[in-house]
Amino acid sequence: MRKRDHSFRKMRIGGKLVVVTSIGLLVMGAFLLVVAAYFFGFVGVFNVFNVQYESLGTLFLFLIFFFILGFFTNLFAQASIIISTAYYKEKKKIITLKIMFETLFLWLAIFIVDEMMVRITVPVETELIVSLILACSNLIFDGKKKIRIKIRRKK
Q: How many CB atoms neighbour CB 101 within 10 A?
């Protein structure tokens, strides 16, 4: 049997186009799957807590703003976690601090986006519950990652 060389460099332009398009569609499909999971998760949680919004488009806009603002508040949360956990050695205290900081900064992002948008009304209790759920799920899905803090000793 002859071995075929299927190198990308040796492919014709039509083959390259098929490969690049297939990979692009695969990446886009994975991204859309994650976005859909978040969207329908928020739709479900907001229906359970009777959050009022005008349309699904409003909720989608809420999620976009939440992700943008949440990215920046997450940076502050991670910095606060790293700074504050340097003083604690016990795992339970570190986990508690992590949940507290992430809940606080997630709530801040949800609160700011809720106040910015007129078309959606989220009660403060629901904001706190959703931010606590997101913080706990973030901790659970992190797996066995540990917060590693390197402290440089002065010699």
A: 21
